[in-house]
Amino acid sequence: MSVDELDGSELGTIEYWESSYRREVENYKNHGDVGEIWFDEDSQLRIIGWIMKQVGIAECAPRVLDVGCGNGMFLIELAREGFSYSQLVGVDYSPKAIELASNIAKDQSLDITYSVVDLMDAEKCKFLGSFHIVHDKGTYDAISLCPNDPKEKRAQYLSTVEQLLCDKDSLFIITSCNWTEDELLLSFADKFVKFCTIPTPTFKFGGKVGSVVTSIVFKKRLRFEEINTC
């Protein structure tokens, strides 16, 4: 059983994101505007709040990787919460996104590492090392909208994320606006098990309850894991 593929879109192309972040770099230089926060700021703060509640700042600071980091604000907020700068890494396949993220962090005196990395390049991703937390807000969605071979790219993405997690207790946190929880569970079943769902705002229409976005925490599928609720 598999999920139906999404229709291809310009949102799944490097050209779209380079053009978008080129404008945001100029806006930041001219007006100090850090740019759009994907899925809105509330979504980002919910994830950070969950991390602080569940993980906190351990004595041995966790390494955190933000895939498709965009303007880098997710890691900047974690740094403000006390996470060690040296343990925070953001990657994006858009050089302009990394330019924007690096400029914002530098201007705020935050020594966070941002690098241009394509998650489809498994060999280059190995040099990133391993992480206790891998975070994705919208990157899996964008890959799913790629006009060319989205199914293969989604499979490569999952293999890359699996390789980037330290061990069975590491967390993969993903927020999606294109896939439901059931679809994500089905697509990720071979490599990951659900740890918990992070509650998101719901709406009711036609007698059915739904969510605008879905946020799920996964762990590696190494053995049977009891599914918890947050």
Fold and architecture overview:
The chain is globular and about 50 Å long. It has eight helices and nine strands. The chain has a single domain (10-220), classed as Vaccinia Virus protein VP39 (Rossmann fold). Helix 1 (14-31) runs parallel beside helix 4 (95-107). The mean pLDDT is 90. It has a seven-stranded mixed beta sheet, with helices on both faces. Strands 7-8 form a two-stranded antiparallel sheet. The chain has helices at 14-31, 41-54, 73-80, 95-107, 122-126, 139-144, 150-164, 181-188, and strands at residues 64-67, 88-92, 113-116, 133-137, 171-176, 192-198, 202-205, 208-211, 214-220. The protein is 38% helix and 20% strand.
Please describe the topology of this protein.
Layout lengths: L13 H18 L9 H14 L9 E4 L5 H8 L7 E5 L2 H13 L5 E4 L5 H5 L6 E5 L1 H6 L5 H15 L6 E6 L4 H8 L3 E7 L3 E4 L2 E4 L2 E7 L10
Parallel strand pairs: 1-2, 1-4, 2-3, 4-5
Antiparallel strand pairs: 5-9, 6-9, 7-8
Entry keywords:
230 residues; globular; Rossmann fold; alpha/beta; 7-stranded mixed β-sheet; two-stranded antiparallel sheet; 9 strands
What percentage of amino acids are in beta strands? 15-25%
Shape: globular
What is the CA-based Rg, rounded? 17 Å
CATH A-level architecture: 3-Layer(aba) Sandwich
Strand order of the largest sheet: 3-2-1-4-5-9-6
